[in-house]
Design a protein that fits this description.
Layout: E1 2-3, H1 9-23, E2 34-35, H2 47-55, H3 72-75, E3 79-81, H4 84-91, H5 97-101, E4 103-105, H6 126-148
C-alpha cells in the first residue's frame, strides 16, 4: 500500500488489510506500506488517522513510515497506489514489465478503469479520514475476494 507520506492513507490501508487477514487466520500474506516521499520516514501514522482507526476498532499505532524502495518490487506481488501521482512515482522506479504489472490503483478494485483516487486527507477535516477509511474498507474487501480467498 503506497501513498505520498505513508502517514495517512497507506498505513490505514495496510491496517485494514492486516486486520482482515488476521480475522481470516491467514498468515501467508505479507502486508506493508510505504510513501513515495521520505517526508515522514520513521513517524507513526498521523494522529487523526490513528484516532479514526481506533473508532473503527483498529490499532495502527505500531506502524512507522518508510519510503518506497526499488526492492519492494521483489518483495511484493501487488503494489497498490492510493492516487495517480503515487502510481506515476512508483512506475518511474519500475525496472521492467514485471515490476510495472504489479502496480495498481487501489480504487480500481471497486471502480475498474475509472482512475479514481483516494483523496489525501492531510490538509482537510476529520470527515475526510472516515471517508478514506470507508473507501479502503470496500477496496480491501474486493482485493481479498479477488486474490486471497
Ligand atoms: P498520505 O498524506 O500521503 O496519505 O500519508 C500526506 C501526509 C503528509 C504530506 C502529504 C500527504 N505532506 O506533504 O507532509
Amino acid at each position: 500500500m503506497v501513498c505520498l507520506g505513508n502517514i495517512c492513507r497507506s498505513p490505514i490501508a495496510e491496517g485494514i488489510l492486516r486486520h482482515k487477514l488476521r480475522a481470516m487466520k491467514n498468515e501467508e500474506v505479507l502486508t506493508d506500506s510505504a510513501g513515495t516521499s521520505n517526508f515522514h520516514a520513521g513517524e507513526a501514522p498521523d494522529t487523526r488517522m490513528r484516532m479514526t482507526a481506533l473508532k473503527n476498532g483498529l490499532d495502527i499505532s505500531d506502524l512507522r513510515a518508510r519510503q518506497f524502495v526499488v526492492s519492494d518490487f521483489d518483495e511484493f506481488d501487488l503494489i497498490y497506489a492510493m492516487d495517480l501521482s503515487n502510481q506515476r512515482d512508483i512506475l518511474s522506479l519500475a525496472r521492467n514489465d514485471d515490476d510495472r504489472a504489479k502496480v495498481k490503483l487501489i480504487l480500481d478494485e471497486i471502480y475498474p478503469d475509472e482512475n479514481r483516487e483516494v483523496p489525501d486527507p492531510y490538509y482537510g477535516g476529520e470527515k475526510g479520514f472516515q471517508d478514506v477509511f470507508d473507501m479502503l474498507d470496500d477496496a480491501t474487501d474486493q482485493l481479498i475476494a479477488r486474490y486471497i480467498e
